[in-house]
C-alpha cells in the first residue's frame, strides 16, 4: 500500500519534529530527547515521516501533574457527591486522609499474575501522594474486608473493558462483599464503559476524561483533519498494517493495541497497551519506542 502524501511533507515533518524537540526541552513533553530522536530516526521515507508526524500531532500525553489533576477532579467532584451526598467537596478526601479505619477501600486494578511493575500499584501510589491520603484506606484486592461499604477501584485508563472484567471475575467482589463498587479511571473509552456496564451493571463508573471512536488514530475524523481530506482513513490503516508487520510491531495484543482501539495516549508513568504499539512496543529489540510502557 502506498500513501499519496502532500508535496510539502518534508516541511511538515520537520516542523512537527522541531515542535516535539522544543516541548521535550521545556519538559512540557517529558520524553528524553535521546528517546525522541531514536524513535524519529526509524521513519526514513517521506511516507513514514508523514505518518510519524501524524502520530505526534495526535499524541495525547498526560504528565504526572495533569494526571493528579484528573484524579483530584474525580475525588473532589462526582465521587465525593456519590459517597457523601450533600457534603462539601472535600469531605471524602478529608476522611481518607485520616488514619482511622473506615468502610471505604481504595483498590488497584491488578491480577495476581501481574508483575510488580504493573501500572495498578503505581497509580495507587500516585493517587495517595497527589491527594495526601492515608495508607490505611488502600488495600490489595484479595484483602478487601467483608464489611467494606464502598470499594473504589483506581486506574489510569479504562480501555476496552476486558481487563477490568477479568479483574472483577478473578476476585469475585460481588460474592465476597456487599459493597458499592465504583470504578474511577482517570481516562475512560466509551467502548470500555459500555462493556463494563453491559456485563456488570451494578458497577458505577466515574472518569475525568472520556475518549470515543474519533480518538482512534484510524478514524475518519482523525485522517480528515490530518490530511485535509486527501488520504482516506482506510488507506492509512492499510499502510500502517504493512509497516507494523515489516518492523516487527506485532505484540500479543495486536498491531492496533489492545481492543483494536488504536489510541495515541500515554502517561508519564506508563503507556496503556490500547495505544498503537509503535509508541510503546520494544520487546523485539529492533524498535525504539517513544514512550515507556
Description:
The chain has 293 residues and is of the alpha/beta class. 43% of the residues lie in helices and 12% in strands. The strands form 2 sheets. Strands 2, 3, 4, 5 and 6 form a 5-stranded parallel beta sheet that branches. Strands 1-7 form a two-stranded parallel sheet. Helix 7 links the parallel strand 2 and strand 3 (150-158). Helix 1 crosses helix 3 (46-58) and helix 4 (64-76) crosses helix 7. The model has no long low-confidence stretch (mean pLDDT 93).
Short structural summary:
43% of the residues lie in helices and 12% in strands. The chain is α/β, with parallel strands linked by helices and 293 residues long.
C-alpha-based Rg, rounded: 21 Å
**Strand pairing plus helix content: what structural class?**
alpha/beta
In N-to-C order, the SSE pattern is HHHEHHHEHEHHEHEEHHEH
Could you describe the largest sheet, including whether it forms a barrel?
5 strands, parallel
The strand count comes to 7
Give the number of helices.
Answer: 13
Overall geometry comes to elongated
Q: Into which percent range does the helicity of residues fall? A: 40-55%
Low-confidence stretches: none
Strand content: 5-15%
Average of the residue pLDDT scores: 93
Which key features would you list for this structure?
five-stranded parallel β-sheet; 13 helices; two-stranded parallel sheet; 12% strand; 293 residues; alpha/beta
Amino acid at each position: 500500500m502506498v500513501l499519496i502524501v502532500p508535496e510539502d511533507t518534508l516541511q511538515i515533518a520537520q516542523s512537527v519534529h522541531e515542535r516535539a524537540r522544543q516541548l521535550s526541552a521545556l519538559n512540557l513533553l517529558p520524553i528524553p530527547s535521546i528517546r525522541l530522536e531514536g524513535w524519529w530516526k526509524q521513519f526514513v521515507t517521506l511516507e513514514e515521516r508523514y505518518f510519524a508526524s501524524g502520530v505526534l500531532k495526535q499524541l495525547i500525553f498526560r504528565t504526572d501533574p495533569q494526571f493528579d489533576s484528573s484524579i483530584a477532579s474525580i475525588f473532589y467532584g462526582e465521587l465525593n457527591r456519590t459517597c457523601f451526598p450533600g457534603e462539601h467537596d472535600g469531605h471524602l478526601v478529608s476522611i481518607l486522609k485520616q488514619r482511622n479505619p473506615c468502610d471505604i477501600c481504595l483498590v488497584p486494578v491488578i491480577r495476581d499474575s501481574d508483575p510488580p511493575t504493573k501500572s495498578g500499584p503505581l497509580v495507587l501510589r500516585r493517587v495517595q501522594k497527589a491527594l495526601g491520603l492515608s495508607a490505611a484506606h488502600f488495600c490489595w484486592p484479595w484483602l478487601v474486608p467483608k464489611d467494606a461499604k464502598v470499594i473504589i477501584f483506581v486506574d489510569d485508563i479504562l480501555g476496552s473493558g476486558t481487563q477490568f472484567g477479568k479483574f472483577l471475575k478473578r476476585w469475585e467482589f460481588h460474592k465476597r462483599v456487599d459493597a458499592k463498587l465504583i470504578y474511577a479511571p482517570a481516562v475512560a473509552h466509551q467502548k470500555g464503559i459500555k462493556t463494563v456496564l453491559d456485563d456488570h451493571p451494578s458497577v458505577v463508573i466515574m472518569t475525568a476524561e472520556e475518549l470515543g471512536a474519533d480518538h482512534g488514530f484510524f478514524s475518519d475524523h482523525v485522517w480528515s483533519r490530518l490530511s485535509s481530506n486527501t488520504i482516506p482513513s482506510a488507506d492509512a490503516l492499510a499502510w500502517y498494517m504493512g509497516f507494523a508487520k515489516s518492523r516487527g510491531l506485532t505484540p500479543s495484543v495486536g498491531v492496533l493495541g489492545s481492543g483494536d482501539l488504536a489510541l495515541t495516549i500515554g502517561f508519564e508513568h506508563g503507556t496503556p497497551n490500547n495505544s498503537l504499539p509503535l509508541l510503546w512496543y520494544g520487546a523485539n529489540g529492533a524498535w525504539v519506542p517513544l514512550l515507556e510502557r
